[in-house]
Amino acid sequence: MKLFVSLLFSLATFVFPPAASAQQAREVDLQLVLAIDASASVDPQEYQLQLDGIAAAFRDDRVHDAISAGKNGSIAVAIIVWAESGTPGDESAWYLVDGVVSANAFAKRISTWPRQVNGGTGIGAGLVQAMRMFDRNGYSSVRRTVDVSGDGRETPPRDYVVLVENARGMALSRGITINGLAIENEDEDLSAYYLEKVATGPKSFVVRAGRYEDFAQAMLRKLLREIEDLPLSASLE
Q: CDD domains of this UniProt entry (predicted)?
């Protein structure tokens, strides 16, 4: 009997790990997950252009200044590389960015992130996994944002997958903002789709990149707007 109770306790601890207390969590101005498209429509060069664009933004002095201007002078950031709905995305650890050195270190790490996933375009499943990354991550902030980039619409769903509309509902219920970066190299109306179907939450917005070569500038604009918390909602740049 004691063994049975012990086993139950062990299982409960595994399924429901103890939450970090408020005293343990470090306060930052923003918790940000960068959700990167690695579906079949993204070739190796296009995948690398996304990584390089993110890295360039975090090396930019304007981003450093925006982070320093915040109340806490810091943000927490992580990435998830997503693709097929039935395949878990590839998550990074969380990084504290509180100055030039830490921002450049994050940029260096992300610029060489290996591609582990491929397949269909499972935006909803990728967003849900991204939102779960906020749980017990050791950070606390008023604002939590998922920044999703991609070049396509959600693949026609299977019965068991989480749809993008379900993910939006989850974001609203948890007070999480989803912003989009639509890469319109194959779909010139993708930004409108992202605005209608993907972006949600306080001050949510969508940025468009006409080609993958425009991704870096679009990411820089997007990141600055997220860090600076500009007072606009559900808009398109």
A: vWFA
